[in-house]
Amino acid sequence: MREVYFIKQNKEKWLGIEQVIQGKIKKNPDDLSSLYINLINDLSFAQTYYPKSNTTVYLNHLSSQIFQKIYKTKRVEQNRLLYFFKTEVPLLVYQYRRYLTYAFLFFTLFTLIGVLSAIYDKNFANIILGESYVNETIENIKQGNAVGIYQSGSTWGSTIGIIFNNIGVGAKLYIYGIAGGVGTLYALLSNSVMLGSFQYFFYDYGALKDSARGIWLHGVFEIFSMVVEAMCGLILGASILFPKTFSRFNSFKNGFKDSFKIFLSTIPFTICAGIIEGYITRHALKMPLILNLIIIFGTLAIIGFYYIIYPSIVNKKTNSQINDAVL
């Protein structure tokens, strides 16, 4: 069958599925399953006879969208909030997983730029971190208290301020994505360069080990969340630049909806990072080293599992459930 005839024969059906995905037409779970089976058949046909065609790309995208729609409309006997974190967000993270890879690559590159800048320009840390911060920290290092800066202020006051500041940084990383992702990359560059120069600054003064014992207690959740928030900004930017088969507005609407859900999932980690920084980091050098390591690697295991490993597990489980449902 010629591709033009294949498109003409199924165009109305595909447009109808788009209407369902956009919520303009309501379908029950059984009807959605039927649509999914029908669409998978069309996709298989297109992959066989038109493997490099835009039609195949379009049908693959449509299939992934209706796939999610099934599980959004399916009756689940569990708390909606639990479903959001347990199933909905992991499926979205899996769908957009390449953007998480991009965000990590840019983060690594920008952090290395910060390190190299601090190596070749001894005044770079002063410019990035501020003269007063650098001078105070140098005095703390001389006194054997590299994380002394975290011991100022009350615990609850510091915690609240830190949480709101970190949420603000994350919001900028995300919202700036509306400028085609360029704004997100700029915000990520600023924060990553600061991190790179910050860590080299401690290394240069022989306090890297002590600083790491304190900074990364809260830094794992904080920095990993920052990368995920950058991922969300890149998704938002890509939805504007690359609308695919959708109108630019509908592509942006879908991109915003999906990326905002992923962004919301970072808020609990950001809050936890603020609590750790406000209440625990100030005691970092007084704690047994083993406790520091348990917290650092424990937080890394939790957030790494949730955003890297768990999405694949949920996707496989969901695929299995759909196959069982349609057979």
Automatic annotation (TrEMBL):
InterPro entries tied to this protein: SpoIIM-like
Keyword Membrane: yes
Domain of life: Bacteria
Keywords linked to the UniProt accession: Membrane, Transmembrane, Transmembrane helix
Chain ranges passing through the membrane: 99-120, 173-203, 215-242, 262-280, 289-309
PANTHER family per the UniProt record, alphabetical: SLR1478 PROTEIN
Full protein name: Uncharacterized membrane protein SpoIIM, required for sporulation
